[in-house]
Amino acid sequence: MLEVSGLCAGYGRLPVLRDVSFSAAEGEILLIAGENGAGKTTLLQTIGGLIKPTAGSIRFEGRDVTGATPEDLVPRGLRLVLDGHRVFPELSVFDNIRLGAVASKTGKVAFDTAVDQIFEVFPILKQKANDKARSLSGGQQQMLTLSQAFVSQPKVLLCDEPSLGLAMALMPPIMNFLRSWAKSGTAVVIVEQHVQLALAVAARGLLMQRGSVVFDGTADEFAAETGIIAAPH
Ligand SMILES: Nc1ncnc2c1ncn2[C@@H]1O[C@H](COP(=O)(O)OP(=O)(O)OP(=O)(O)O)[C@@H](O)[C@H]1O
């Protein structure tokens, strides 16, 4: 579904990514872990079209999309969800969700089904569907950001720190949400500081250090390599 090969990218003359290669298959969750500054966010942003790579290639569904912009990639089904909250504060919660489906042209039936699923996982968004998004807490805005991506039905979801700003109690529902999302066929690539929790749902784990991939293996192999035990779920 997604193949990254020999990717290099950075900021101005500062190189960050060095020869990064990995792939993510349909229906699997791939965890990207690594210390602060390892280049995880830069990697997601480069794949998502926000940073132009200086070398290497990105293939999505067998097509070369190296250097494509988010405007090209989102309608094709490759979607980046950044950390921090990027909702439209003056619009209602429901309108924010609706906007998520615009670029991908999700059909009405698929949209309604997706909204039902969202309201099941995040009942607070149903309760506040008509309230302005600015009235939501940080964690609720994060739920809304994920929901906007969900209704766009991406084939590849790149998700930076889905847990950011969320109470720990919300982590298992978020992880389960991502898991059911992957089960529907989406390749989910997540950067997550809560490695134990993410490992519980990930099929594979990739470890980055100073802009390079230093380990890539199954979740069990990742746990054996790093000594990190997946949280029970
Ligand atoms: N906009 C930017 N301009 C210049 N350098 C940047 C920029 N963003 C990140 N960097 C640098 O690139 C390197 C990789 O940062 P990146 O945010 O990709 O790491 P990360 O693994 O996601 O870390 P974190 O977990 O702290 O977000 C760091 O040295 C960082 O200082």
Task: Give an overview in words.
Keywords: Amino-acid transport, ATP-binding, Nucleotide-binding, Transport. It holds the Pfam family ABC_tran. The chain is built from nine helices and ten strands. With about 230 residues, it is an alpha/beta fold. It has a domain of about 160 residues: P-loop containing nucleotide triphosphate hydrolases (Rossmann fold, 3-Layer(aba) Sandwich), CATH 3.40.50.300. Strand 4 and strand 5 form a beta hairpin. It is globular and about 45 Å long. The model has no long low-confidence stretch (mean pLDDT about 90). Adenosine-5'-triphosphate binds next to strand 2 and helix 1.
In short:
The protein has 233 residues and is of the alpha/beta class.
Q: Could you outline the blueprint of secondary structure elements for this entry?
A:
Elements: E1 2-11, E2 14-24, E3 29-34, H1 40-47, E4 55-60, E5 63-64, H2 70-76, E6 78-81, H3 93-100, H4 108-121, H5 123-127, H6 138-151, E7 156-160, H7 171-183, E8 187-191, H8 195-199, E9 204-209, E10 212-218, H9 219-226
Parallel strand pairs: 3-8, 3-9, 6-7, 7-8
Antiparallel strand pairs: 1-2, 1-4, 4-5, 9-10
Adenosine-5'-triphosphate binds at residues 11, 14, 16, 34, 36-42.
